[in-house]
């Protein structure tokens, strides 16, 4: 067994365990932390497949920005056991049966698929250099159009977020200062 295969199985095991912990954790903040670990292990798989750009984007976008957004939403919602409605035991059982049936359908669908390994030692399709060449040669016009679109969206967000001009705030006199 090579080091690449060992790394694959270690990352796959950590990804599966952390994904199960996302679903089974009682505390939503811990679920978010387990989801971050899952994203990091998926990025490790991207690195094993020689797709460094996807690995970095996965860490920056998902493990960084999206998880911060999830944490802010969880904190703003102020989740507690008192406000959460209690779930019926029949509803829990129906959810477990539906999940088991979904797993059964997925296993049956994938049972007769061809078993082939991804090529992990060679190949340069996921390298940033190749992506940059294609992006700035063949797709330069759509790239520039999307950059103008993002710029206009940022300007619009700033304009909408800016408070309307109102009457100036009254000056407050602090005692003891002249």
Short description:
This protein is an all-alpha fold and 178 residues long. The chain has helices spanning 3-24, 28-48, 52-77, 89-110, 128-137, 140-161.
Topology summary:
Blueprint: H1 3-24, H2 28-48, H3 52-77, H4 89-110, H5 128-137, H6 140-161
Structure report:
The chain is mainly alpha-helical. 69% of the residues lie in helices and 0% in strands. The protein has helices at 3-24, 28-48, 52-77, 89-110, 128-137, 140-161. α1 (3-24) runs antiparallel to α2 (28-48) and α2 (28-48) runs antiparallel to α3 (52-77). The radius of gyration is 25 Å and the shape is flat.
Uncertain segments: none
- What's the end-to-end separation, in Å? 79 Å
Total count of helical runs of at least 4 residues: 6
As a percent range, the share of helical residues equals 55-70%
Alpha-beta classification: mainly alpha
Strand segment count: 0
Instruction: Using the alpha-carbon principal axes, give the shape.
Output: flat
How would you characterize the largest beta sheet? none
Amount of beta strand: under 5%
Q: Output the radius of gyration.
A: 25 Å
């Amino acid at each position: 067994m090579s080091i690449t295969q060992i790394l694959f199985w270690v990352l796959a095991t950590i990804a599966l365990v952390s994904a199960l912990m996302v679903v089974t954790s009682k505390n939503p903040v811990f679920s978010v932390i387990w989801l971050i670990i899952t994203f990091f292990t998926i990025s490790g798989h991207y690195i094993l497949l020689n797709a460094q750009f996807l690995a970095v984007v996965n860490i920056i976008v998902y493990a960084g920005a999206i998880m911060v957004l999830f944490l802010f939403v969880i904190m703003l919602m102020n989740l507690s056991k008192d406000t959460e409605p209690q779930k019926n035991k029949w509803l829990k059982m129906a959810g477990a049966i539906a999940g088991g049936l979904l797993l059964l359908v997925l296993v049956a669908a994938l049972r007769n698929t061809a078993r082939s390994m991804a090529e992990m030692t060679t190949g340069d399709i996921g390298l940033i250099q190749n992506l940059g060449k294609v992006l700035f040669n063949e797709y330069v016009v759509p790239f520039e159009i999307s950059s103008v679109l993002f710029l206009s969206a940022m300007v619009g967000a700033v304009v909408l977020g800016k408070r309307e001009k109102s009457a100036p705030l009254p000056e407050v006199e602090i005692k003891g200062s002249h």
